[in-house]
Amino acid sequence: MYISNIGTLWQLADAHAGRLAGPAMASGIIPVRNAWLRVDGDRIAAIGSMDDFVPGTEEVFDARGASVFPTFCDSHTHIIYAGSREGEFLDKIAGLSYEEIARRGGGILNSADRLHQASDNELLADALGRAQLMMSRGTGAFEVKSGYGLNTADELKMLRVAARLAQEVDADVKITFLGAHAVGREFTGRQADYVDMLIADMLPAVAAEGLAEFVDVFCDEGFFTPDETSRILEAAARYGMRPKIHANELACSGGVQVGVAHNALSVDHLERMGTDEIELLKTSSTIATMLPGASFFSNLPYAPARKAIDAGLAVALASDYNPGSSPSGDMRMVWALGCIKMRLLPVEALAACTLNGAAAMDLAATNGGIAPGRKASLIISPVNINYIPYAYTEPWISKVMLRGRFV
Ligand code: NIG
Ligand code: FE
Question: Does the reported pTM lie above 0.90?
Fold first, then answer.
């Protein structure tokens, strides 16, 4: 089929780009005026100018002058969880920090208790609901983590639900094992034993079923140390699992350093990142993934995205959709926060939410950009792309196409 009368098509300047870094974040996605786009199966087949449009007998969708740009690639979510945590929301309003709530037995352990009680089908139904909402708001690929199991059986339960979720949705899904999200209740006060168990039991069980492509560790103050992280990443590498880690949310924790040392696909959060970390990331291929929705909801500083891009890094933005620190998977909001709070240009933030997000999931060969041969996962909007993060609560998405089909 064809999409005709596209007012502005936001196309990749280099069809084969695997990421956009530094100044290329502003120049790597270019506006093509008055265009058509042909979809064949799940792919973009061709792009051309309306001046020479010959559709033949194929079906045509008239975009009536709309903007067309790629769907969002949300490279960091925790959307498999049971229940919600609005009780802690009240504690937060009363002034407790994320760490204080966690120390009182709330936080991740609270979600682990609820997940333990929930059936696979309940978990899947809830996660599917969240995924549908994300897709309706323009997300075409996302990553999902385990990490509310915290014992072998429940981590496997989460990951099997993730595998079913990936089968059922129209979006492309990548799965990450995050057994080291917190120390499970049975190991309270015995963090070292928990890490030993994770390496000896959890990892081999996850690998035996091929349930996760990536491995994550919450490497931060009060959670896992760089040494523990290093041991886990080393063990996971033996199963071919590439790291994408939580780092520097709560402190300059050494997380970026350990991530880079283990060739992480991405280091995520980075609210507390200094010049040393930026300089180190410049020497690596690790994507700097920032989560402004978590800063917004948890009243944390925003990660230094502007500084990182000015230094030449490839920055990705993701939602961190989870019940504790970011109960939203709306990438429109992430895009807007990238502009409003991090001072990215709309097109830079779009690059961060699309191709660079795809890169942070090892999907950049096929997702995250408009060019022939790539996935036909597109957003159609009646307004221009500067207006979208500006009028940040207006429902501007008129249509979403995922893998060649309107949803
Ligand atoms: O990315 N920081 C660690 N993990 C999540 C929060 C998870 C939770 O509170 O349930 C995050 O913010
Ligand atoms: Fe997270």
Answer: yes
Ligand 1 contacts CB of residue 92 (under 6 A) = no
Half-sphere exposure of 142 (CA within 13 A, CB side): 36
How far does residue 145's CA lie from ligand 2's centre (Å)? 8
Q: Could you tell me the two tokens for 109?
A: 């352990």
Tokens of 389: 């993060």
The string of pLDDT tens digits covering residues 362-390 is 999 999 999 999 999 999 999 999 999 99
**CA–centroid distance for 276 within its chain:** 25
Q: Which of 196, 244, 247 is nearest to 221 (CA)?
A: 247
CA atoms within 13 A on the CB side of 235: 24
At 293 the three-state DSSP class reads helix
**Hey, what are 151's tokens?**
């014992």
327 lines ligand 1 (CB under 6 A): no
How distant, in Å, are the alpha carbons of 59, 132, 139, 193, 403 from that of 74? 31, 14, 7, 33, 16
